[in-house]
Specification:
The complex is a heterodimer of chains A (584) and B (191). Chain A is mainly α and 584 residues long. Chain A has helices at 3-31, 39-53, 63-86, 103-114, 124-127, 130-160, 170-196, 235-244, 265-289, 293-319, 323-326, 351-364, 379-390, 401-421, 434-459, 462-465, 473-487, 502-532, 548-583, and strands spanning 205-209, 227-231, 330-331, 426-427, 430-431. The longest helix of chain B is centred in the first third of the chain and has 30 residues, at 5-34. Chain B starts with a helix and ends with a helix. The chains are: A mainly alpha (584), B mainly alpha (191). Strand 3 of chain A pairs parallel with strand 3 of chain B.
Chain lengths: 584, 191
């Protein structure tokens, strides 16, 4: 790692930690229904929403009603998005005359955006028209994020309430997350991005006369080789929410590697920050809502300690470059005139630091946006994002979903340590009993089952193997990455794999739906069970859960569950590839 | 369950209007008013005509121009309507062969140049539209460009230095040269 890389990483961590408390405090007030400063502006909108929907925001729901409302809302969103894609050719603002999306691709994309995954089996500028992107994808970027936040808030209420049967009102949590948190932050970020050069227009194309004409190898008569057709569009508004809502679905095919999506190192910094801003701040919100901010800091510290070593590994692996290219007579050393390193699939303006830091953060958080092509990373540089997702997206994770996953790991950590020392397992004054442990076990088991079974299915069938782009063990990594990403609602890809086939679209869509909603429903069941329990004051037998000791314990549980489950699969992919490079 | 159907439908419609229409319209309005250059693609105008975008690279292979990074876009390089990378894995023989061929092409176009070949000049960018090359990649080509244009090499090198952008705020990103602007500057030098 270069000195500049270390400083860039430290500045990123510093700015993030400085923002956690103010934003976390603000979000806690949003969920506790307290005035937040935007009420005179957004209050009337909020009340109009409730009136038109026939919702009484103060009417509390039990976990089943909360879950039913959440599922219904997402089901409606899913079918709307599916229909919109199929029928997009009937809509206006379609200058390139794009047709309706094929059924399997539309299914996969609808599942992808409703589940906050934003796996993209399509190319943005070549498949979807602006109205589909705005009315379908941008909307789901907001509401899938708000859904995750609502489920988290329900779980926090379950932990903080004493013998209660209810968890709050889903519609109110959904509306307030969108109105008071996601919309203002997105507006601010999108304008910052535009000021740096992210495009935001309702035109679809700009044309420019080329300095030097390009030969067109395939003789496509639509493309004039003397002109450059520049795809533009309302990108900034979508990019702001795709980063803030841990969505990750790009406006353009190259995602945030595209200069119109991420034009400068400054936008790159803002976009990386935006990926973890809400997941990190929610830890503080959690602390405020359980009336002990130390609990929130403890979880945040566990996440941060899990993150930083992977930043170091990823950065060093990419900076040291690809030794097979050195043999070809290429200079990969970092020096004044060049960043060096493994630059295949990376942009000059970000260099190694801006690219590798992004790849780590985007997979630690379940964002999945990319600013460089993960498929072209060195074996170890590619192992890092893969492994981070396999932790179950709890190192920051998705907005809401990351923290509720981490709370489940905290419950498991409490239980394991309780077994070890003979103490009563308690978390935040709630006794952890067999029902909670069953739910927690279900939650951590389902993800590896989905990921590994679908990977096994794909690698053992001709249909699955025929989509592989890179030969050898790297091809296996492509498939493992695809299902890991979808099974954890991340959305990034080893993009060489041709995933726009009925097989991958269907299996991937199923993986995304199960992973998202199985988890969300189990979390709500857990929240319901916890809410009913009495809050018992901490006694001498209680294991404190805000101490460094507990942070270490929590980290070990997360690492062991992740490592033990996936190490054999990783050994067949990136680890073999790394050994082959070293051997050659 | 039944009483939740109406809110589920209405809430989606209303939030669609709010986040799918009003929000992008508001951002577009503000962007077009305050940052109209940036919002429309940072076009570079010459004699009233757009000759490209400051942010999007173009393909060059004539010896009198600086060449950019290889581009993997289809069906031709630097297709700004279909961005994308090569996605070649680090051990893929196709990658190694492609890089060797690019090194050979650079060497063939510039006999006698014994500088080492900077890695960014022979590897494809993530977007296929990278507008920049590293200063080292520009300096590597200075001799060839100077010869093809009949210029003094020192003039070309000075041009590279004046077009080298430092790290943003002295910290973020990497030092780089905007290829299109550099080539435009070369063209205006002759006139």
């Amino acid at each position: 790692m270069t000195m500049n890389a270390v400083v860039q990483v430290l500045v990123f961590v510093g700015v993030l930690l400085a923002l956690v408390k103010p934003l976390g405090w603000y979000m806690a007030r949003v969920y506790e229904g307290k005035p937040v400063g935007l009420d005179c502006l957004l209050g009337p909108v909020e009340r109009a929403l409730y009136r038109l929907c026939g919702v009484r925001p103060d009417k509390e729901m039990n976990w089943k009603n909360y879950g039913a409302a959440m599922l219904l809302f997402n089901a409606v969103g899913f079918f709307f998005l599916y229909g919109l894609q199929r029928l997009q050719s009937l809509l206006p603002l379609n200058p390139a005359n794009l047709g309706g999306v094929a059924p399997d691709l539309a299914f996969n994309t609808a599942a992808s955006f409703v589940t906050n995954t934003n796996w993209q089996a399509y190319g943005g500028e070549t498949t979807l028209i602006s109205p589909t992107q705005m009315l379908g994808l941008t909307v789901q970027n907001f509401v899938s994020a708000a859904t995750g936040m609502a489920v988290l808030v329900a779980l926090i209420r379950g932990l903080s309430r004493n013998t209660s049967t209810t968890l709050g009102n889903f519609w109110s949590d959904l509306a307030r997350s969108t109105l008071y948190i996601l919309l203002p932050l997105s507006l601010l970020l999108s304008l910052l991005l535009v000021s740096q050069g992210v495009v935001q227009t309702f035109d679809s194309y700009q044309t420019a006369t080329l300095l030097q004409p390009v030969m067109n190898e395939q003789g496509n008569s639509k493309i004039k080789p003397t002109e450059q057709v520049l795809a533009v569009g309302p990108a900034a508004s979508q990019i702001a929410i795709k980063q803030l809502g841990t969505n990750g679905g790009g406006f353009f095919n190259a995602n945030s590697a595209h200069p119109f999506e991420n034009p400068t190192p400054c936008t790159n910094f803002l976009e990386v920050l935006a990926m973890v801003l809400i997941p990190a701040s929610l830890c503080y919100t959690f602390g405020v809502m359980v009336d002990d901010t130390r609990q929130g800091w403890a979880l945040l510290m566990a996440m941060m300690i899990l993150l930083l070593p992977f930043v170091a590994i990823g950065l060093s692996a990419e900076q040291s470059g690809n030794s097979l290219l050195t043999a070809a007579g290429v200079d990969q050393l970092s020096q004044a005139g060049q960043a060096g390193g493994n630059t295949e699939g990376k942009e000059t303006r970000f260099g190694i630091t801006g690219s590798a830091l992004w790849s780590v953060v985007t997979t630690a958080a379940s964002n999945g946006a990319v600013n460089s092509m993960h498929d072209s990373y060195t074996p170890l540089g590619g192992l890092v994002p893969l492994f981070l997702m396999q932790f179950g997206e709890v190192v920051f994770g998705g907005v809401g979903s990351g923290l509720y996953g981490m709370i489940v790991f905290a419950i498991i950590a409490v239980f394991i340590s309780g077994l070890m020392v003979g103490r009563t397992p308690e978390y935040l004054g709630k006794k952890i009993e067999p029902y909670e442990m069953k739910m927690a076990a279900l939650l951590i088991l389902i993800m590896p089952i989905i990921v590994l079974s679908f990977t096994a299915l794909a690698i053992s069938t001709e249909t699955g193997r025929s989509s592989i782009f890179n030969p050898g063990s790297h091809g296996f990594s492509e498939i493992l990455y695809a299902y890991t990403s979808q099974g954890n609602n991340n959305g990034s890809a080893f993009a060489g794999l041709n995933v726009n086939t009925p097989f991958y679209n269907l299996t991937g869509g199923i993986a995304m739906l199960i992973s998202r909603f199985w988890l969300a429903i189990s979390i709500l069941a857990l929240a319901g069970a916890l809410a009913r329990k009495k809050l018992v004051p901490a006694g001498p037998g209680t294991l404190p859960t805000h101490t460094p000791l507990f942070v270490v314990l929590l980290i070990s549980v997360v690492v062991m569950v992740g490592a033990l489950t996936f190490l054999p699969a990783l050994a067949l992919g990136p680890i073999v590839e790394e050994l082959m490079i070293r051997g050659s | 369950m039944k009483e939740q159907i109406r809110p589920a439908l209405t809430m989606l419609v209303l939030l669609t209007v709010l986040t799918g229409l009003i929000y992008p319209l508001a951002v577009t309005g503000l962007a077009q008013v305050f940052f109209s250059d940036q919002a429309n693609g940072n076009l570079i105008m010459r004699e009233g005509k757009a000759v490209g975008s400051k942010l999007i690279g173009q393909y060059f292979d004539k010896p009198e121009y600086f060449w950019g990074r290889p581009s993997a876009t289809a069906p031709f390089p630097y297709n700004a309507a279909a961005s994308g990378g090569s996605n070649l894995g680090p051990t893929n023989p196709a990658l190694i062969e492609a890089v060797k061929a690019r090194v050979a092409a650079l060497r063939a176009a510039d006999p006698g140049n014994d500088l080492s070949v900077p890695v960014d000049l022979v590897t494809a960018s993530g977007s296929g539209l990278d507008p920049h090359i590293s200063p080292a990649a520009a300096l590597y080509q200075a001799k060839r460009v100077a010869r093809a244009r009949g210029l003094d090499e020192a003039i070309v090198q000075t041009l590279i230095v004046t077009h080298t952008e430092e790290r943003q705020f002295g910290l973020l990103g990497e030092r780089k040269v905007n290829l299109l602007q550099l080539n435009l500057a070369l063209d205006s030098l002759i006139r």
